Amino acid sequence: MDAVLVLGALFSARYPDLVPAACARGLTVLGIDVSTPGKRRFDDARRTWPDHPLAGIAELSWIAGDRHEEILEQAIRWRDAGHRIRGVLAFGEDYVEAGALVADFLDLPSPGLRAARVCRNKLLQRRYLDAWSPASWLLAGDDRRERAAAWSDFPAVLKPTGREASSGVQRVDGTAELLTALEGYDPAEPLLVEQLVDGHEVSVETLVQHGRVVFASVTGKRTNETGGTYFVEMGHTAPDPALDDGTRSAVLARNATVLRRLAFRDGIAHAEYRVTPDGRVCLMEIAARAAGDSILTLYHLATGAPMEEAALTIALGEPTVYPQPRRYARQVYLDHAPGVLLDVTAKGLDTGVTWLADRWMWPPVKPQDTGPATVQMVVAGRPRGDELVEVRQSADRSVMYVIEAPTPAELDALERRCTAAVTIDVRGG
């Protein structure tokens, strides 16, 4: 029986076309994920709602992403039970290395062991890709504080080498601030201190097959760094309307060079860059997996085609194409006041608020070739009664919306209307 193995399977709820596309091909979907309260809720939802995007997962095994040997053994057990695994897909940062290992063992397409290992670790990225990266030092071991005291290039960024989703990343403006910030991390956790790069931030979503770029597009990014010390992503626009043709070409050329250095073979890459005021393209980080947040949904709206299906065909080793964007799409995360979340309303919009906790699935989107700007969804990602705090990492965000339009000007106008319409009601903490 032909099958596809999806690692971080419940994370793929963000990508609602993946499992249905596999099932439509007659593939059995085998899933592996880590057992957490949130993932268990997704699992309950997929078993409860027949229209849930993950309802087609046939078998699910609970194994954490860092348990590579156990994941490989589970894949072997499924293979020996009669499943002919034809493709491996890793969703979620913690399954990237395990996915590449299993694919390598089964002689199936993957980004490759080098790409998976380097992309999983921020220090290795800085060393393998140093020609295109800011200067950095590793702070680890017994002399971590002494090395930090010797760093002199400020402002700087302090970040853990192995975390994800902006966790633990912060700006420091001097030696005293850096040394104080160190106290907030476990003494055994390796950290990087690196030059702060000013400039417009973007990501590049790339589909690669047999080492050749099949599709690449630049996505605009927003963070909450202005006036603060954190770097949490608060918005994405696909494709990025802020770049001229020359800058866009420079970003894509740099991205292609980075992928070649990684010997990236087959799969999706999500790379983040800064374009400095003098036009230099500087690598922030790169992941050997699909983008997080709703970036794939944005490209579904912008192109009319779900990128998950293209990722599936790459994993299966089938010829893959993906269309260029024809419209613009944007995701916006709204800031909130700290306190207890009471309600979220969206007055005057064409869509109501989806509370993720009600059914643990994102609402479907409706791409269009022509027509006016549309609001695709307004989502409350946290339940009523949750304690909201200052946004220091992605998990602290609470409410977002997704919109699309034929032109950047229409997209901007709809964003202004949405931001004014959505209210986050909080009882002060």
Q: Into which percent range does the helicity of residues fall?
A: 25-40%
End-to-end span in angstroms? 55 Å
Number of strands: 20
CATH superfamily of the largest domain: ATP-grasp fold, B domain
Strand order of the largest sheet: 13-12-9-10-11-14-19-17-16
| Total tally of structural domains | 4
CATH class of the largest domain: Alpha Beta
- CATH topology name of the largest domain, in short, is D-amino Acid Aminotransferase, Chain A, domain 1
Task: Describe the 3D structure.
It is built from 13 helices and 20 strands. It has 429 residues and is α+β, with helices and mostly antiparallel strands. The chain folds into four domains: 107 residues, 3-Layer(aba) Sandwich (Rossmann fold), CATH 3.40.50.20; 61 residues, ATP-grasp fold, A domain (Dna Ligase, domain 1, 2-Layer Sandwich); 129 residues, D-amino Acid Aminotransferase, Chain A, domain 1 (2-Layer Sandwich); 98 residues, ATP-grasp fold, B domain (D-amino Acid Aminotransferase, Chain A, domain 1, 2-Layer Sandwich). The strands form four sheets. It has a nine-stranded mixed beta sheet with strand order 13-12-9-10-11-14-19-17-16, sandwiched between helices. It has a four-stranded parallel beta sheet with strand order 3-2-1-4, sandwiched between helices. α3 packs across α4 and α4 runs antiparallel to α5.
